[in-house]
Design brief:
The structure is a homodimer of 424-residue chains. Chain A is an alpha/beta fold. In chain A, 39% of the residues lie in helices and 26% in strands. Chain A has 14 helices and 17 strands. Chain A has a 6-stranded mixed beta sheet with strand order 2-1-3-8-7-6, with helices on both faces. In chain A, strand 16 and strand 17 form a beta hairpin. Chains A and B meet through helix 2, strand 2, helix 11, strand 14 and helix 12 of A and helix 2, strand 2, helix 11, strand 14 and helix 12 of B.
Chain lengths: 424, 424
Amino acid sequence: MRCDVLAVGTELLLGQIIDTNSSWLGEHLALHGVDSLSQVKVGDNIGRITGHLRRMITEADAVIMCGGLGPTHDDLTREAIAAVMGVDLVLDEDVADVIRHLFSSRNRAMPENNLRQAMVPVGATIIPQTRGTAPGLICPVTVDTPEGPVERVIYAVPGVPHELRDMFDRGILPDLQRRSGEQWTIASRTLRTWGESESGLNERLDDVIAELDLVGNPTLAFLASGWEGLKVRLTARAETREAAEIVLAPWEAKIRSILGHQVFGIDNDTMESVVLSLLDDLGWSLGVAESVTGGLVAGRLTGVPGASRVFRGGIVSYASEVKFDLLDVPEGPVVTEEAALAMAHGVRRLLDADAGLALTGVAGPAEQDGMRPGTLFAAVVHPGAEGLVERAVHIRLPGDRDTMRQLSVISALDLLRRSVTGSL
Amino acid sequence: MRCDVLAVGTELLLGQIIDTNSSWLGEHLALHGVDSLSQVKVGDNIGRITGHLRRMITEADAVIMCGGLGPTHDDLTREAIAAVMGVDLVLDEDVADVIRHLFSSRNRAMPENNLRQAMVPVGATIIPQTRGTAPGLICPVTVDTPEGPVERVIYAVPGVPHELRDMFDRGILPDLQRRSGEQWTIASRTLRTWGESESGLNERLDDVIAELDLVGNPTLAFLASGWEGLKVRLTARAETREAAEIVLAPWEAKIRSILGHQVFGIDNDTMESVVLSLLDDLGWSLGVAESVTGGLVAGRLTGVPGASRVFRGGIVSYASEVKFDLLDVPEGPVVTEEAALAMAHGVRRLLDADAGLALTGVAGPAEQDGMRPGTLFAAVVHPGAEGLVERAVHIRLPGDRDTMRQLSVISALDLLRRSVTGSL
């Protein structure tokens, strides 16, 4: 089954809005075993929309159109579909009533052009609207092929991402699966990793990749995600979700046994949520002292709802005197292992926290204390079986100022995770 | 002149990478008066790449291909162009030397497949590589049209955004302008604003927009950019850059006179760079105390190279006791104007800074101190003509946890800016 995507809107071509819809659709089609082999952006021009649509529906079994369903004269998706189907547009009274009701329930007068959204190509069915005013459309269309006429389908959904995603799950996916006649479903598991490059991971998983290539199910994909780490995703298909989970399980176990502590979480876990939850389980509080990252570690930790159960606060000791005066760092060079350790001890004491994490380094563009941009010293101090545990690492990070700072954040949090779990 | 875009890479269709390149190209082509009317994503499949390219170059004067220039067998852009041009690929010794040198200068052995990147279609010219290993290509191609054969052009650039942007400016744009035979150039001015919604700005600029619609040059565009504020961009075209600047100037002045202090900067200014530069000019240092934003304000300020001239540091007083113990906030509710002011005084004192900025609020999902998510109190304390100036604001912000925190950052920095410049 092949389902291509046609995104409609001049604003997409002008770069005023980035088309994330077709990427999302491509990802979710693939997860359900549907190929999306061509995705097109076109402006609000009836000739060009119709031209692309006509061609695309001869190449693919289905085409999803995103956008162009609004009330204005620029919204031409309905007209293009009717032209390709060779049918008229008619007013759907039920849809019209929903739209009228939406306005009256908000005590607002309805501009007449809103009823354009109730115009439906003859022969199409509706994906009812739940949030916006425009319904989605399922439009069967007969296409001449060398093997004779075949029935294909054009879907139309609004360009607003949450409406599109809702209608995809509720209307498009079930219809696609009914048409494909296939009964399987999918399950996926993303292993979140940190500590190795994509090519390094690839090499270590070489044998697994070769085996998976032979088996074909599940499939494996890598996704480098900056300071979110590197994702390794397994996707399995089977007749039921339960069966797909059973297909996944031994491969997940195998990959985990190879990657070991480099797997820090699964699916929607993040390094910061994992660290917070580890400390929460231990009943430990955390304080963070930052220089090179200037608050980014604290900012990420506090992005997690409920961070306050663990995170007491942070000291952004950007100026050296703040390190000396507030954190009792010995006067001298501040981009050193000793300074990082002193900062970790200092913030732990100052904020009365069980664990202290500290970062000092050089983000660039200039050198500092004779250290090159990309230099990071990170240190942790936390309770252990025999008194306080303290550890520090010296890491060389690549990239510009922003990249170096972002990679510093996940590197330092990972140090804390591995020190606390004894996997350093 | 019409220049369409063909982005190549299976990872784009699978949603593993979002295609921001074609959006960027569409925006910058439009800025230079070139239409981009269709933008296509296609996977690493030679038949489909060639099929799209063959069709697109009959529809547009030029096609930019992004991606597929790497060293592996999946990188098929060179082969597709050669097929459409009807020519062979040959090894370009100069390019090969650059690639060999790149590896030897890093003391690394060069895998032989890297020389694939030195293969060039006969008749193409090179856009030399400066950072990556793959050069860009300028490939003239003769296309049969109903009016007879015409010369068109296919450009190929790497998918890595910074390489692509550099080669667009350096290689594609000059070539496009030479081919179009048009002599004009463009100048643009982006006014960075904060303090009003897009519809509010639109309304205040109603008359200017109507006048610009009549004049046609310059053009005006709004771009809502989250915690980067709202951008108002004027773009003028003229025969020389100097003339374009002259076209711009009175309109910029007109818009500035209407928007007043809401314009915080231009072009690549950011709220944090503007605030740092204001304080730098005054010779003032800054300390920041954050609760709801948990380090994001400090993180943004320290993202600016040279921030250390002004920014001494920050206290992330996430737990209430940290506010009480370290910042001398009076015990009691901490989401109040009084608490924000006490935090600003406290951090100024503690870090020995000239100015103090503080934020306390509720990001959600839960209420705190009876305050709803979206509540922000921000406060500043800084020197004034008659002793210390202190100001606080209470703002209601929209959005989820992330959005609320991001809007808090720019709102608080704007408070500091306006208080220091006397425009509050």
